[in-house]
Specification:
heterodimer; A: about 180 residues; mainly alpha; Arp2/3 complex 21 kDa subunit ARPC3; 9 helices; about 65% helix; disordered C terminus; B: about 350 residues; alpha+beta; Thrombin, subunit H; 6-stranded antiparallel barrel; about 30% helix; about 20% strand; disordered N terminus
Chain lengths: ~180, ~350
């Protein structure tokens, strides 16, 4: 089945197709922040929203724009209840990193692709941790956050990459299309 | 490089990445300075999502319990023996506690002791939990409509879990004692040592502001101290355990991960009605007030009122050179007629 974008779809539908990365990112944010844990709260939930940002940031940066990333990060901040702006900043900076080294990241395949995503996720978690630590530093009497939960979150994010990217790539092939800049 | 820092959509220019990064930084600073904006948005979102969360909770909660029991299935026998032994010991302590409670009641009657402030509680159901790297919280299905207010303590049958930090109309967010931002005043017994229980996202919070001159012991009991008047005193919190650095941490009695129903304690000292401003201590004590002194004009002539200087005198204020009115003159009871909400806030 050809993607909707490459077929003669109406303009309104093409506009909706162009919103797919944003909607997918928001859906991942919602899934991440359903405050129900399947593992009894043993580990933090993965940063699922990072998967569509990484995926479409590599192959369709015209659809996953910086403003889209800003919106997804803002939604993550509002829904997660964590310190305001931290997820937004970490997502946007990770997007900038991926954009900076797009050719290197996009050339990865198989296990190397997982390693590439792990590098991006590490950068995102490290950015969030440093931001919160900096906020704690300027707040009198505040403690630096424990590193253990950030590492657990990173591990969960990397582990969830493979199943999540399957869904995202399926959506991409069915709705968006592979070529760059068609919308 | 230029492409990396300015990604534009064909025919529809987007904000450059640098500006978006700057906006994100501004968002962080704004969140730090005006956290209430985000909190209100979260309250509205949670109110909207509450029905969904309650629907999702039922199937996931049973799976959650099953997962929790898997890890304990191998130690059930040992736990059972331990619990039987503990149960027998607790029954003895219960009898002792009942006897002591009666004795304390009699002593209070004899001493005309001021009774403890009354507390009422709202039973709430946990509809969600979030265990994030920088946030440990739970969401309850009681909000402002159920008189849940920020600052109120949340307990389970074992001890204190945390306190409410954000309320929507029908939901509340609880900041757990283990959360990075949690600070509550506690008392360590024996010794009545005052400290601050500070969460750091680890399962056992640490103790701050402990005097260097006191000696703590593992096993000491930690309860809320009630300092500040926001939390009731004496809520069980946990016990001291030694950590690897030679310090102490608090092993909490409550188990937020397993709690399904919790109580929100509405602890507020009853607002006192201040006496009328004209009522002197002697009157309040039931004594006859002394006669007011004769007016100053009768003894010495009052000086002529000074011409008010611009910017110094306030026409609305009484002239200090005029004789003062007698002290028994009734004045408007501003404090007594304050709205109840204000007095409650002051009390809080």
């Amino acid at each position: 089945m050809a993607s909707l974008e490459r077929t003669g779809t109406p303009t309104r539908l093409r506009f909706l197709v162009g919103l797919t990365p944003l909607l997918c990112g928001l859906a991942c944010t919602f899934l991440t922040n359903i405050p129900v844990s399947l593992l009894g709260g043993l580990v933090p939930p993965p940063l699922l929203a990072l998967v569509p940002i990484y995926f479409w940031g590599l192959i369709r940066p015209d659809l996953m724009t910086p403003v889209t990333v800003l919106g997804i990060g803002f939604a993550e901040d509002v829904l997660s209840g964590g310190p305001a702006g931290v997820s937004t900043l970490s997502f946007v900076l990770t997007y900038a990193l991926v954009a900076r080294y797009r050719d290197s990241f996009a050339g990865l395949a198989g296990l190397a692709a997982v390693v590439g995503f792990a590098a991006a996720a590490t950068f995102a978690c490290a950015t969030a941790y440093c931001t919160v630590a900096a906020l704690a530093f300027i707040t009198p009497g505040a403690h630096s956050p424990a590193l253990g939960s950030s590492i657990s979150e990173l591990a969960m994010t990397v582990l969830s990459y493979a199943p999540a990217v399957l869904v995202v790539s399926w959506l991409h092939h069915k709705l968006v299309g592979a070529s760059r800049g068609d919308v | 490089m230029a492409n990396a820092w300015k990604i534009a959509r064909k025919g529809n220019a987007q904000l450059p990445l640098v500006i978006v990064i700057a906006l994100a930084v501004v968002l962080v600073l704004l969140g730090k300075a005006q956290g209430g904006l985000f909190d209100r948005a979260r309250g509205h979102v949670t109110d909207l999502l509450a029905p969904v969360l309650e629907k999702v909770r039922a199937p996931v909660a049973s799976f959650d319990r099953w997962m929790g029991s898997v890890t304990e299935i191998f130690s059930v026998y040992e736990q059972n023996l331990k619990l039987k032994e503990e149960n027998a010991r607790l029954r003895q302590w219960r009898n002792v506690a009942i006897v002591l409670q009666g004795r304390v009641g009699r002593y209070q009657q004899l001493l005309h002791a001021v009774p403890d402030p009354g507390m009422n509680a709202v039973l709430a159901k946990v509809i969600g939990r979030a265990n994030r790297p920088f946030l440990q919280t739970m969401i309850l299905d009681a909000g402002r409509e159920n008189h849940a207010l920020p600052g109120q303590a949340v307990i389970d049958p074992r001890g204190m879990i945390g306190r409410i930090y954000l309320t929507g109309n029908r939901t509340s967010w609880v900041i757990l004692l283990t959360d990075l931002n949690s600070r509550i005043p506690v008392t360590i017994s024996p010794g009545n040592v005052q400290a601050i229980l500070a969460g750091d996202n680890s399962p056992m919070p640490s103790l701050d502001m402990v005097s260097h001159t006191v000696t703590l012991h593992a096993g000491d009991q930690v309860t809320s101290s009630g300092d500040g008047g926001l939390l009731p005193a004496g809520l069980p919190v946990g016990t001291l355990v030694s950590d690897s650095h030679g310090g102490f941490r608090v092993a909490l009695l409550s188990d937020p991960a397993a709690s399904q129903d919790v109580e929100i304690l509405n602890f507020s000292k009853p607002p006192e009605t201040p006496p009328a401003t004209a009522q002197l201590p002697v009157e309040a004590a039931g004594l006859k007030p002394e006669a007011p002194p004769p007016p100053a004009s009768a003894v010495t002539p009052a000086p002529a009122p000074a011409e008010p200087k611009p910017g110094q005198a306030n026409p609305g204020q009484p002239n200090l050179g005029q004789p003062k009115p007698p002290l028994a003159t009734p004045k408007p009871q501003t404090a007594a007629t304050a709205p109840p909400g204000e007095s409650a806030d002051l009390d809080r």
